[in-house]
Every structure is written in structure tokens, then in C-alpha cells.
Amino acid sequence: MSFVRAVATVGGLTLVSRVLGFVRDLLMAGILGAGPVSDALVIALRVPNLFRRLFAEGAFSIAFVPIFASTLASDGKEAAARFAEEAQAALLSILLPLTILAILFMPAVMHLLVWGMAADDPRWDLAIELTRITFPYLTLISIAALQGGVLNALDRYGPFAFAPVLFNVCLIAGLLLTPFFPTAGHAMAWGEFAAGIVQVVWMIGSCRRAGVPLKLRLPSWSPRVKRLFAVMAPAAVGTGAEQINAYIDISLGALLEQGAMTWLYYAQRLYQLPLGVIGVAISTALLPQLARAAKQGDEAKAKELQARALEIGLLLAVPAAAALLVIAVPVLTTLFAHGKFTDADGVETARALVAYAAGIPAYVLAKSLSTGFFARGDTKTPVRFSILTVLLNTGIALALLRPLGHVGIAMATGISAWVNVAMLTVALQRRGQLGIDRRLTRAAPRILLAAAAMGLVLWALGSVPFVAALPRIPNLVLLIAAGLATYGAGILVTGAARIGDLRTMLKRPRSVDPTTPTGLEGGA
């Protein structure tokens, strides 16, 4: 499967998941609004999902896929499957006790992870109760992520990319069953618990269909498993700056008025749409192919892959950032301001979204740049940069908290993201491993020009009295259509992208080297 085709597979399914996620968020906003229950639910959803994104889908995949792919190439499918089974047993031996302890001692966990909320806060008891329900999701999704890593290494990207669709379906079902629960928060918490079970069952079936069923084993700390966990810890920090910063934002939001945590949550949901669809899709497809090129010593191929990843990231992330910077208010008020979520809540969320949007290209570029280190077995360098990024974000957020409130928290995240990109870029350049070629340097300024033209058109169109007077949904549809048309015309006129190039990249290769096991054509 070609790199861009793999990105399209993962990105397309991620987009479906994100659309369902917005349906979920629309229901959640209308039913809960922005208040104590919604703030408590945000914590319950964020705590296990922070660990999920850091370890299960982040660090574990980054550490596991290269080792699995290397084992597959050198020792064959049976040895690779055995390594996966050993890794699964080791994960369960750690996560099951951790989950039990976290449930039993959740008040202590809450004190550690939610700094801005005291025990006498009206949200405290509910946050503990809901997080106890959602925390087992960490163990369940970790097992699903391992199985997804196996399939990704075999170029079968579709099954694991579809798993989040099932997650959102379960949460939507939970919300629709709210009358049967004490609160909508309880309904969503149990929906997340159910989602973990459904995703594990789906991935077990997908692995069986791929011919790599993973059996349950007793824990066995083989040399490969020890290496896996040695790489995982730094990889969690190295790839998790954006996720850690997002969690810090929510935690600091507890220091502000009730509802601020919810405003930040919905703003994060919107800016993470392009990050999830673009950044995660690119890094998921890039890692196994870049690791393969690095193992074979094909540095030219590795650089070319990274250059195309950066090009695709800019092509999609820059216009997303420009659009959200200009039309954040109509987007937020149209999508979320209904039911208990007021227009005032929508405006406050939009203010945070504008601050987050400025960092969208940085979040996406960092995914591709950090993958360049991990694919070559270097986890220490991104770790150092991520620690600096988190410290910088926390310091700036605290400095801006009093004068700017929740907007200052969001602004700090965007600033620190660009600093992270700068550090990653300089480090790769010094090593001679930065994938920037003539095609990328030619496309980048043209992409910026096309996105700037789109932003200008959106700003001018929003100022037209006739457009401003339209009902919210037609107004937003008109703005989105105009933005897409302007940007599409802009990239074609400037030559930032050519239709012929896109068609070439999306073509499936006619043949695959049979001596390269990790190059197997997989049904996605």
C-alpha cells in the first residue's frame, strides 16, 4: 500500500469517527450544557484517555511496530506473533493491577491529576464516581492497540482505524439511554466502558481474519519484551506533549469558574479534529514505512517519505487553522449553542478555539518530525523536547491565567507546540535526517498563500450584511463552501498541489517485493 493511500485509509476512517464524535459532543452539549456535571464528566473522560493516548495508542504503537516489523522481516510471522503474545501478556500483568488500584484509590489519583479541584468542590464526588467507571477503558484499549499495531505492521490499517468509530457509537448509545441512568454523565461513562469491550472484540476478530490470532500467555519477559518496555517510557513523553498539554489545560481550567473546563474541552475537540484526521493518519502510516527504510539503510527513501508527510500535513493543516481562526464563533455557536449550552458558552469556547487553532500546523508537523526519530530507534531526543514543551506550556499558562483566563491557557499550548516543532526540526537537520526537498520548499509558501486568501475571503464574506443575517446553519454552510472553493482554487492556481501528483501518490503499487514481509498488501 502506498504511503499516501495508507494516509487516506486511516484519515478517511478517522474522519468518520470524528464526525460521529461531533454528533456525540452535540448531544452532550445540549443535554449537559457547561456546568458541574459536564466538568466532572470531562475529567472522567480525560483521565483514562490521557493514559490511552500516551501509552496505548502513542508510546506502545511507536515502540511495538518497529520491533514487530523487524522480527517479522528477520524471523518470520510465527516469531513475530509470539512476540506480540508475550507483549500482550506483559501489558495485562501491569494494567490489570494498575486499574484495580486506581479504582480503589481514586480520590488520591484525582488529587494527583486534577490540581485545581479541592475535595469540597461540588464536582469532586461525581468526578471520582464517573472516573471509576471509565478507568477500565485504559486496559481494554491497550489490548486493542497492541492488536492494531500488529495489523498496521502488516499494512492492514483499516481495522484499527475503524475502532474509534465503534467507540463513538457506544458513547452516543449511552447518551440516548440517559433516562435509565442517574445523570447523562453516568450514561456516557458506562458507554465508554462498553466501548472498550466492543473494540477489543472487534480487534480480536480482525487479527483472526488477518491470520495472526493472538493467544493468551503467562507473562514472559523475553529480551524483545524488555526492549519494548524500555522504549515505551521515553516514547510516551516524546509523543505525548500535545496530549499532556491538553490535559494540563483542563486541569488548570478547574482553577477558573465552573464551565471553563467544559469550554476548553469543546475547543480541544474542534482543534483536535484536523490533528486526529491528519496528524495521526500521517504518523500511523509513516512509522512502519519509515522504520522499514531506516532498517534497510535507505536514507534517501526515508527522507522522501518524511518530505511527503510534511507536505501533506501542511496542505491539510494550514487551511484548517486559517478557517478556525476566522470563523470560530459561527462554528461554535452553530454546532453547540443549543439546549443547555448557551450562546455565551459558545462565544467563550470560540475564544479558546482561536488560540488553539494557531497551533494546528505545529501539532501536525510534530507528529511527522518525531516519527523520524522513533523510526530510527531514538526516543531520547523527542523526550527531552517534549519535557521542555510541557514545562514551557505550564509556565506560560500560569502566567496568562490571571489576565486572560481560559484563553491564556489555550494560547500557551499553541506557543509551546511551535517551539517543539522548531527543536525537532533543528535536531533532524543537524543529523542530516530532515526530509525537506525542492518539492516541499516550493509547495510550502504556495500553501500559505492559498490559505491566506481563503481566510481573507471568509473574513470579507462574514462582514457582508446579507450573509450575517442568514440563519446559523445556512450561514455556516455558505462559509465552509466558500472556504473550500477558495482554497481549492488557490492551491491549483499557485501550483501548491497538482491533480496529477495526487493521483500518482494515491495509486496502489503494481507489485510488492515478495522478500519484504512487512510490505504485504493488506486488506484495509
From TrEMBL:
GO biological process, one term: lipid translocation
UniProt keyword Transport present: yes
InterPro entries: Lipid_II_flippase_MurJ/MviN, MurJ
Residues annotated as transmembrane: 54-73, 94-115, 135-154, 161-181, 270-291, 312-333, 353-375, 382-401, 407-428, 448-470, 476-500
Recorded GO MF terms: lipid-linked peptidoglycan transporter activity
Cellular component annotations (GO), alphabetically ordered: plasma membrane
Signal peptide: none
Topology relative to the membrane: Multi-pass membrane protein
Location of the protein in the cell: Cell inner membrane; Cell membrane
Primary localisation category: membrane
Protein family: Belongs to the MurJ/MviN family.
Protein name: Probable lipid II flippase MurJ
Gene from which the chain derives: murJ
